[in-house]
Design brief:
This protein is mostly helical. It is 95% helix and 0% strand.
Length: 98
């Protein structure tokens, strides 16, 4: 049998315990939602950071290619300048010999 007299006697204590449990559960639910929102924000920031890093990497690659092209042009200019100096020296020697 169910001891109804005992249950009714302790009803206020049971009610207080239930209210405390409900309050605790709803507070934790609010905290859980706040944590979920924060995690969602962090995930969005992480995706944005990854996108920015990818963009920076692409820009760095473009700068590297431009630097290599400029270095090739400088190398060609130095070779042409060296050839021009050699030709000028040869022309000066020919002029002096004649």
């Amino acid at each position: 049998m169910i001891p109804w007299t005992l249950i009714l006697k302790h009803a206020p204590t049971i009610l207080k315990g239930a209210e405390a449990l409900y309050t605790h559960a709803t507070a934790n639910a609010g905290k859980a939602r706040a944590v979920e929102e924060r995690v969602s924000e962090l995930e969005a920031q992480s995706r944005e950071s990854a996108r920015l890093l990818q963009e920076i990497a692409q820009q760095l690659q473009a700068l590297t290619e431009a630097q290599q092209a400029a270095a090739n042009r400088v190398r060609l200019a130095l070779i042409l300048a060296t050839v021009a100096v050699v030709a000028a020296v040869a022309a000066a020697v020919l002029v002096l010999v004649r």
